[in-house]
Automatic annotation (TrEMBL):
Pfam families per the UniProt record, alphabetical: Nucleoside_tran (PF01733)
Family: Belongs to the SLC29A/ENT transporter (TC 2.A.57) family.
InterPro entries referenced in this protein's UniProt entry, alphabetically: Eqnu_transpt
Species of the source: Adineta steineri
CC terms in the record's Gene Ontology section: plasma membrane
Name of the protein described by the UniProt record: Equilibrative nucleoside transporter 1
Molecular functions (GO terms): nucleoside transmembrane transporter activity
Chief location of this protein within or outside the cell: membrane
Record's bilayer topology term: Multi-pass membrane protein
Keywords, comma-separated and alphabetical: Membrane, Transmembrane, Transmembrane helix, Transport
Lineage of origin: Eukaryota, Metazoa, Spiralia, Gnathifera, Rotifera
Coiled-coil ranges per UniProt: none
Location in the cell: Membrane
Amino acid sequence: MDSSSNSPRVSTTSVPGVITIDGHSWSYWAFVWLGLGSLLPFNFFITADPYFRYKLHDPTMPNSTVSRLELSYENAVTICAAVPNLIATIFVTFVCIPYIHKYRICTSLSGITICLLICFSLIFVDVHRWREIFFFLTMILVMIQGVFCAILLNCFFSLASTLPSRYIQGFVAGQALGGVFVVVCSIASILFSNNISISAAIYFLLAIFVLLSNLLTYIYLEKSHLLQIYSSSIQEINNEYEPLLHSSSSTTEDYQNSNNNNNSNNITLLALRQRLLVAYKYTKWNFFGILLTFICTLSLFPAYMSKIQPAYPSINYPNTIWTDRLYAQVMTFLLFNVGDTLGRMISSKIQIPSLLKPHLLFSICVLRFLFIPLFGLCHFPNTNGFPYVFKNDFIYAGIVLLFAMSHGYCNSLNMMYAPRRVHAQLSSTVGALMLMALTTGIFIGSLLSYGVVAMYGDAKEPDNQHFQ
């Protein structure tokens, strides 16, 4: 690689004073709220796992016996969400990028809301006689919302990448807050409701409310002073006919022969493939940093970490609600999402390593794989004879927080640095490229999680059938 590709190309903007103009407005929090809603549908499908198991239970079987559909729900949801999401992300990255349009965003939000409305309506339908149909219908809805989420995230990341870095940091922080929001709702449902159907109805209504508010937030954000300032650059990005009007050969020749001050115009004239290659050339360390960050995280969370048990037997606890129903929710899901949020918030104030040291940031992302053997020393119900070393819940909580904060910090830094390493007119392309790394990392990490669980040996299926 040439030396030029190692040095960041900090993007410039036509309005350098935008942070001063818009720094104290609600636009930053609008991106936080949009980030919160962007991953909410998948989180709700996962968190409502006991409700779907209740729906899929065969009433002719004993209550303690788990049916085939119940056992396959978690794996099916993961695959049905990850595969269409990855395919759609690759498609919109290589075919439709860069293209930010309000109708694409509004259609995606509306489509996800309709999927959740259908799920909400099925809560009050007795599906015991057609459980297989209900199962496949649910998986179809998961696949549809996965496609819509890919399109939505592509637009939001591309949009946030054209703005100052604080806005993409706010968006990824909102995604972490979405996880906290879901877990808090989960804990509240455990404490205040034992009725699975009522808890599920509240869950889906909350998700629908957030998505509708996201729709209104974006419509208002589009007319905000912030986007009006950047309207010219966004309009340039939204020129959907650009790849058709300029052939690859002519744009490449123009790009290679230009050695004057018209570099920005030549970048604009690049065809889609050349834009992606140039964007990748300058941001590849951030691309692989995000990829490895999500592979490491998804290989452990939630498939492996949700099965870790309290450090001491439940006989030492006077109230088994903690060990049976709340331990995983608080010690794993809540702590992870809180730590993830803290890591993303810290990245807005402390940015070490700096933009000039992409190799060091990449090395930190690689070092996170040490958490795989570290969590193997916790109280996992394994059958392969791995040692149980950390016999204290506070040690496990500390490892979870460090794991989550490093995930949020590395993810946020890579997301903020990548658009700043290219010219402003390629920032939208970089945003979509980073989303492809994120989606690919989630897919590979989800598959790797089965290997991690099998490596340590999952002794049994969880016997908790309560709505979590």
